[in-house]
Amino acid sequence: MVPRTYQVRTYGCQMNVHDSERLSGLLESAGYVPAVQGQVANVVVFNTCAVRENADNRLYGNLSHLVPVKASNPGMQIAVGGCLAQKDQGEILRKAPWVDVVFGTHNIGSLPMLLERARIEDEAQIEIKEALEVFPSSLPTKRDAAYAAYVSVSVGCNNTCTFCIVPALRGTEKDRRAGDILAEVRMLVDDGVLEVTLLGQNVNAYGVEFGEREAFGKLLRACGEISGLERVRFMSPHPRDFTDDVIAAMAETANVMPQLHMPLQSGSDNVLQAMRRSYRQDRYLGIIDKVRKAMPDAAITTDIIVGFPGETEADFEQTVHVVREARFAGAYTFLYSQRPGTPAASMPGQIPHEVMQDRYLRLVEVANDIAWAENKKLVGKTVAVLVANGEGRKDEATERVSGRAPDNRLVHVALNFEVGVPRPGDVITAEITHAAPHHLVADRVISLRRTRAGDVGEQPINNLVLLGLPAMRPA
Ligand code: SF4
User: From CA 31, how far away is CA 27, in angstroms rounded?
Assistant: First the structure.
């Protein structure tokens, strides 16, 4: 029997990227195979996000595009999961009756069974759970990269930021037992994984469910004991829970990378109060200072919302002030987006779009100038770059491969055939020769370390293709 093919379309945050790895793993363990590029899959799964206003429009737009495709491919099935499914539930079937399955954020494991039931009963299936039954980490996973993996330490969030819908859709925080997390990390390292990213909506609150305040710092230190694990990252921490023991654990644990992504959202105390972010500007900058003292080379990035209801020009200037003080390596800046169902959506003082847009452009300019200036300081430095799968490939002409430095900066490295052709998962040591606002270039290759991750990820085809370059090059 010809196996049915599948395609998973992922929207939103790292949590969703990780859930999509599980959805792929679940379908493959149920006998499905991934559809190849350009092929119409027998099953298309939308793993949705509900954070931004146009998330709904985009989903229903994509679903309507599939109507003619489904009509000309009998037996094709469409499934919708993720945060928007958890929020809209039956509304999805009312708006898009050609959808076969709707499942929520707490029961992704049900997908294969629901697809089968929909096929046999020829009737759409919907299953939404209001709380998590089993931690999704026990589900099969299909990772995109052999050398890196996400590991969930918690799901859900106990905070109530007024612009955010996540707690309503992912529930209150549930923490995994540290033993389970470390067992999964060891298993991944045995599989050749070099880098793990510990994931949680509020990763550094880890342990709150079993009342252990310093559990996250201890978890980082425990990861330091795992031989073969070269790089540990985590996302996303909340400034309120960013305690000194975590900073010490980062600084004192060799394989915890000097990199921190810590959402600021706003630099204004008035706006932070309206956002219910339970920290203020001085605490945020205080953490940045402590991190920089403990790890002078740390790269710090952030998320910022511009145009939150009630934000005055003076408030906005406070955000610009923090960006100047914090000297972020990168700032993901968003225009405030009214999210039905959140307290902020009905707050007075909604900001006109053109004012938001103007502030957004001004802030991005400041943030980019700083990121570029910080990158320029690294020219002449030597870095170890973990080569990635086709990430940020510039173009064939440059003959560079791409990957991440320990501080998670994107680096394009020249190919040096004397040193050897790297594979995704290998580590190149090279000197940075050029800095751009959002990446670095290292054209002086010093050495190439082949890793087991490179072996595991190596396809029986020429590495150059893996790296998005034309096939074999004359020796
Ligand atoms: S910390 Fe705030 S923004 Fe982040 S998931 Fe929780 S409620 Fe949402």
Answer: 6
